[in-house]
Write a structure and sequence with these properties.
mainly beta, 7-stranded mixed β-sheet, 4-stranded antiparallel β-sheet
């Protein structure tokens, strides 16, 4: 049971990428899902979040206005549209399902079903 992120790659500053998060063996419908990223030498950072039943969204301060999280429940897939990318967005991006609700959405300890991430590199 895991969530698999895909769609990463190399993009120039100012460019766009669309990441996908597909579920294997677990449904994402009705569950809260988060996107996180981790750059070398840095802690895992919450990027975006979508709640389970109302699809309300939250974003990290560094990506507000540039990233958009959405889901296609029929396809059991989640998306992260990333626009106006910056070199500091370079990281491995992960998606995970929120299983505990005792803290903020960007607390990675509340999530499970982490899969292998996808590398995003923003460079000219």
């Amino acid at each position: 049971v895991q969530l698999q992120a895909s769609g990463g790659g190399l993009v120039q500053p100012g460019g766009s990428l669309r990441l996908s998060c597909a579920a294997s063996g677990v449904t994402m419908g009705g569950y809260s899902i988060g996107w996180f990223r981790q750059a070398p030498g840095k802690e895992r950072e919450g990027v975006a979040y979508i709640s389970g039943y109302y699809d309300s969204t939250s974003y990290g301060d560094s990506v507000k206005g540039r990233f958009t999280i959405s889901r296609d429940s029929a396809k059991n897939t989640l998306f992260l549209q990333m626009n106006s990318l910056k070199p500091e967005d370079t990281a491995v991006y992960y998606c995970a399902r929120r299983m505990r609700y005792g803290g903020n959405w960007n607390d990675a300890d509340q999530y499970e079903y982490w899969g292998q991430g996808t590398q995003v590199t923003v460079s000219s």
